[in-house]
Design a protein that fits this description.
heterodimer; A: mainly alpha; two-stranded antiparallel ribbon; 20 helices; 2 strands; B: 568 residues; mainly alpha; two-stranded antiparallel sheet; 23 helices
């Protein structure tokens, strides 16, 4: 394999969003160091400006259909990569908006907080474009690097330190698995780029290698049995970081998973479907059942996140173009609902200093706006119409039923009911239980903005999803030929009879 | 037909709910005005719908179709047939009445009306959906408002607040409390309702997804599926697929109906709910079950329905008798009405199970009739509760002196519920009994016993509430004097009696929906209509259908009755 590192201006164009963000990152850092007296809100707005610019650039790429590969296929820009980049950048903007008040809790390095958040976002943007195993490793570690610091940002807080340590040790372990897996795969096939592995034979080394890689990615998305870091890390981290961690890396990691399964491993589909079915059933069931017992809202959302990943894995297990569309759609609905829910957690925690579910008592009287928004977000997570989460779940189920994954769908449907219970427990506290302290809660402006964006996304996608469906269908267009022949499982008796 | 009536009926309450978000709770009159106004628009539009529906033409009318997602094969496809039309009317009458019944709610008025409007609009949406996706969408959408309405404005049962758990602790959330069936908190009732309905709703969703997959048509459209879906004779798990789908759909939707073994959430929910919610719950929410079974199972799986509907015929006996006996022994007014409702829903199942023109029409009319009768009873039970703060029948009594108007209406409500001639319930009951006699004589006898039971427990409750000696602590209670308090009762009474005396149009409308459906399922056309199509023209009481062989041979009904029930 030869690398040609000569770059033409058109190659640079493909990297434009990343280059733009990198430069902006430096600007943020320089401004922070040069003007230490500058209010940190200004830095937040500065970072958001850069991210919005990047988002605009990505949207331009998406609309004008700019695509291509770089560095001997290591880095690919296609519509799916652009989708996930926009996903990550959008999530980052919302997280920064939601952090602006919270940052005052940090004693040190308030300015660097924004730098680290944007840097992680940059890493995840590269993840969305990773097209071979080496770039997977490098970009994954690049994005995780920022999180290692962010998770333990509350230096005085024991829980935050514990969270950081746990995340770091398990993260490094996952990195080790990933490196080992990559080396095995490379040893067996001599290839690194996904699209070169199509003709690989199923040797034991290759299978173990890919299992290890799946384990490392499973760690990123928090699927059972690689979930053990999630509850404590989510609980201990500063809440905006938890929000960030709960959504953006999942999106980026699913980009890699999609490329790995549909490009590199397309021929082994019958095998990996079983793997994904198992991971999905375990994630949904474990996440939902353990969530019932939670007393802390962040832990509840952590376990619900594990369950949601199980739902997304249903779409991956479907192994079709439609399943991929459903994954993208679902992740988008999850972005709005989950970030919205975390924004409420941050707002409530700023106002009353607590993250216990019991302290949400009477929120419906203390702050009707927050309570109503939380209700909408939780119901969207539970999958209640007419909210976005329902359409997302239905899309995934439809994709899966077309492949005949009945067991998986049955488990998924039962899990909807289980999850409804614990989401409604929070609703019960907010609306039915009387408040311990009836004083109204104040909500800051940026926080309101996040909540409004979340509400808008959740409601609009729920009522009129067609534009988003068109978008995700276009984003995964490249899989239509790949998934086509592999999807021809001998299950569907084609019944298009006239019924006469 | 480019007529937007259905959209007005469906979206007026939603628009009202959205407008209410921007109103303030301090302007109570404005809040109530918006709610009443939007419900009024819905009511007027559905009255127009009911009388503009052409029973001679039959089929689905006022059809609206908007592409919603072509990848998933979903369209907002609305339309009503003779079965949906009266139920839409019943829903909007009960919504309008319910707004006035809850006129005096002081706590978070705005939120109450928002959820009430969403609940009613969602149920209306089910009655006019011609798309499986939207049917489920609206069905599931009606569940969550129930949770909030029960939880926020509901009431505990009488003994609940004095209760201790088996260890003598006042821990009302402990496990011991869950098994105290007699006395429950509103939180328990609300959670039970939601989980129960959701659990069975997902079973129905599984059935819907199976239909979607095995039809291979990539559409959720009921009209297309009923014409083209071929789900028969696909062997699965030792039986055939259509049976599995049918069972999933039937029991999934029968839980809300509520059919006997699946009923336990319902009376508990009634007892906890505020009056207007109970009205909508018993009046229309329960009918979602029967309606969805008719719309999905009857339409898409006619042959399987013919084969498996005896299940309902068996279970409906238990519904009728069990509900009746529990209602007889219950001491809580709302438990009595709640169990009476679940008992009466057994009649509807009987009418459906017989798969006869008369009995199925009777079942549909019964749904309409029961909505009015039980709506009245719940409204008045709510009034009595508001005045006396108790629903315990033994401690009440003699209220007829304090509230003569309510007492008078209550007598009418009981009469309607029993099925006195002159009320529309009478017509419905007679049709069910006459229509099912040839096929299920045992069930008909049970149903007649059920009527006697109804008489017994309603009279017992009436006597307990309004006659006999009155406790002095209730001497402050008031009658419904103001127009807003009398209006809802008068509306429901006049509808009940009006259709009891002049049932022609209702009957014709229902027959126009039922005839092609039954013809398709039983593959026998009604005797009076041989040769003139399935459109209903007169009110000639049919002789009982005797499925004799020559009739089948002479009048084979094509399995694509497009001519009679087309959407054009």
């Amino acid at each position: 394999m030869t690398f040609s590192l000569t770059m033409s201006p058109s190659d640079l164009l493909l990297l434009l969003p990343e280059i733009l963000l990198t430069c902006w990152l430096c600007v943020v850092l320089i401004v922070d160091f040069s003007f230490p007296r500058l209010p940190k809100e200004q830095l937040a707005y500065l970072s958001i400006a850069g991210l919005v610019g990047t988002l605009g650039c990505l949207a331009w790429f998406d609309i004008s259909g700019i695509s291509g590969t770089l560095f001997a296929n290591m880095f690919v820009v296609d519509r799916m990569a652009l989708f996930f980049k926009m996903f990550v950048v959008g999530a980052t903007i919302l997280v920064i908006l939601a952090s602006m008040e919270f940052v005052h809790r940090f004693k040190f390095f308030r300015g660097e907080y924004y730098f680290l958040v944007v840097m992680s976002a940059l890493g995840m943007m590269f993840m969305a474009s990773a097209n071979d195993l080496l770039s997977v490793f490098v970009t994954l570690e690049f994005s995780t690097f920022g999180f290692y610091v962010l998770v333990s940002y509350l230096r005085e807080d024991v829980a935050s330190n514990e969270a950081g340590l746990k995340f770091f040790i398990l993260g490094v372990f996952a990195a080790g698995l990933l490196a080992y897996g990559i080396s095995l795969v490379y040893g067996e096939t001599g290839k690194l780029v996904f699209s070169d592995m199509k003709s690989a034979q199923a040797t034991p080394g290759l299978i173990i290698g890919f299992l290890l890689i799946f384990g490392a990615l499973g760690f990123k998305i928090g699927a059972v049995p690689f979930h053990s870091w999630i509850p404590d890390t989510y609980h201990g981290s500063p809440t905006p970081v938890t929000a960030f961690l709960s959504i953006a890396p999942k999106g980026a990691a699913f980009a890699i998973l999609l490329r790995m399964f549909f490009v590199a491993l397309a021929t082994f589909k019958p095998t990996w479907v079983l793997l994904l079915v198992a991971a999905s059933i375990l994630s949904m069931t474990y996440g939902n059942i353990v969530a019932i017992a939670q007393k802390n809202i962040k832990r509840l959302l952590a376990y619900s996140g594990i369950a949601q990943v199980g739902n997304v894995l249903i779409g991956l297990a479907a192994g079709t173009k439609m399943g991929n569309d459903a994954i993208l759609f679902y992740l988008l609905t999850y972005l709005f609902a989950n970030l919205g829910a975390f924004a409420i957690v941050i707002a409530v925690s700023q106002a009353i200093g607590s993250e216990e579910i019991d302290d949400y008592s009477g929120l419906g009287r203390r702050s009707p706006f927050l309570a109503f928004s939380m209700l909408i977000f939780l119901l969207s997570l539970a999958g209640v119409p007419p909210l976005a989460g329902f359409i997302g779940k239905l899309y995934i189920f439809v994709a899966a039923i077309k492949e005949g994954l009945y067991t998986l769908i049955t488990v998924g449907l039962i899990n909807i009911v289980i999850s409804m219970y614990y989401y409604l427990i929070v609703v019960k506290k907010m609306y039915i239980t009387e408040p311990h302290d009836p004083s109204p809660l104040a909500v800051s402006g940026p926080m309101k903005a996040v909540v409004y964006i979340g509400l808008a996304g959740t409601l609009i996608i729920g009522v009129y999803p067609q534009p988003v469906i068109d978008w995700v269908v276009a984003a995964t267009m490249m899989f239509s030929d790949l998934a086509g022949p592999a999807a021809a499982l001998p299950t569907v008796p084609p019944v298009v009879s006239s019924g006469g | 037909m480019s007529d937007y009536t259905l959209l007005y009926i469906l979206f007026a309450p939603f628009a009202g709910a959205i407008a209410l978000i921007f109103a303030s709770n301090r302007q109570a009159l404005l809040v109530r005005g918006i709610a009443a106004g939007s419900a009024g628009i819905s009511l007027l539009a559905s009255l127009y719908l009911f009388y503009a529906y052409d029973p001679v033409k039959g089929g689905y009318q006022f059809v609206q179709k908007y592409e919603w997602s072509k990848q998933l094969g979903i369209a907002l496809h609305l339309g009503v047939d003779g079965i949906g039309t009266p139920l839409v009317l019943a829903s909007s009458i009960l919504l309008f009445a319910g707004i006035f019944v809850s006129w005096h709610i002081k706590d978070r008025t705005k939120e109450f009306y928002i959820w009430l409007l969403i609940l009613a609009a969602a149920t209306i949406g089910v009655f006019m959906s011609l798309d499986l996706f939207f049917l489920y969408f609206f069905y599931e959408m009606s569940v969550i408002p129930m949770y909030l309405l029960l939880g926020m404005w509901g009431s505990h049962t009488k003994k609940y607040l004095e209760m201790t758990d088996p260890e003598g602790l006042k821990l009302r959330d402990s496990v011991g409390f869950i098994f105290n069936f007699g006395a429950n908190s509103k939180e328990y009732a609300a959670m039970k309702l939601v989980l129960f309905l959701s659990a069975f709703a997902v079973a129905a969703l599984m059935g819907i997804l199976l239909i979607y997959r095995y039809s291979g048509l990539n559409t959720f459209d009921i009209l297309q599926l009923r014409e083209h879906a071929n789900l028969m004779n696909i062997p699965v798990l030792g039986t055939t697929l259509d049976k599995i789908i049918w069972v999933l759909i039937f029991f999934g939707f029968a839980s809300i109906a509520p059919l006997w073994p699946l009923h336990s959430w319902s009376p508990v929910g009634h007892a906890a709910a505020p009056a207007a919610t109970s009205m909508l719950h018993a009046g229309v929410l329960m009918k979602l079950g029967h309606f969805s079974i008719i719309r999905v199972a009857f339409e898409i799986l006619p042959d399987t329905t013919r084969e498996l509907m005896p299940i309902a015929a068996v279970l409906c006996m238990f519904s009728i008798i069990y509900g009746g006996f529990v209602a007889f022994y219950a001491k809580d007014t709302k438990y009595v009405i709640g169990y009476s409702s679940s008992s009466h829903m057994g009649y509807v199942f009987l009418g459906m199970a017989a798969l006869d023109y008369i009995s199925l029409s009777g079942a549909v009319i019964y749904m309409f009739a029961h909505a009015m009768a039980t709506g009245m009873l719940f409204a008045m039970a709510g009034w009595v509760y508001d005045q006396t703060h108790t629903r315990d029948i033994p401690s009440l009594g003699g209220l007829s002196n304090r509230m003569p108007f309510i007492a008078g209406c209550f007598v009418i409500g009981c009469m309607a519920s029993i099925g006195m001639p002159g009320t529309v319930n009478f017509i419905a009951e007679v049709m069910i009994i006459v229509g099912s006699w040839s096929k299920y004589p045992l069930q008909v006898i049970v149903a007649v016993v059920g009527i006697v039971l109804t008489l017994a427990y309603l009279f017992k409750m009436m006597r307990g509430l309004f006659y006999g000696p009155m406790d002095q602590k209730y001497s402050h209670s008031h009658d419904a004097v103001a127009a807003v308090d009398r209006l809802p009762l008068l509306i429901m009474i006049s509808v009940s009696i009006g259709f009891g005396l002049f049932p022609m149009h209702l009957y014709n409308v229902v027959r126009s929906g039922v005839d092609p459906l039954v013809a398709r399922i039983t593959q026998v056309v009604p005797v009076a209509h041989t040769g003139e199509g399935a459109g209903m023209t007169g009110v000639t009481m049919m002789p009982e259908r005797t499925p004799d062989v020559p009739l089948v041979a002479n009048n084979p009904v094509p399995r694509t009755p497009h001519a009679s029930r087309g959407s054009e």
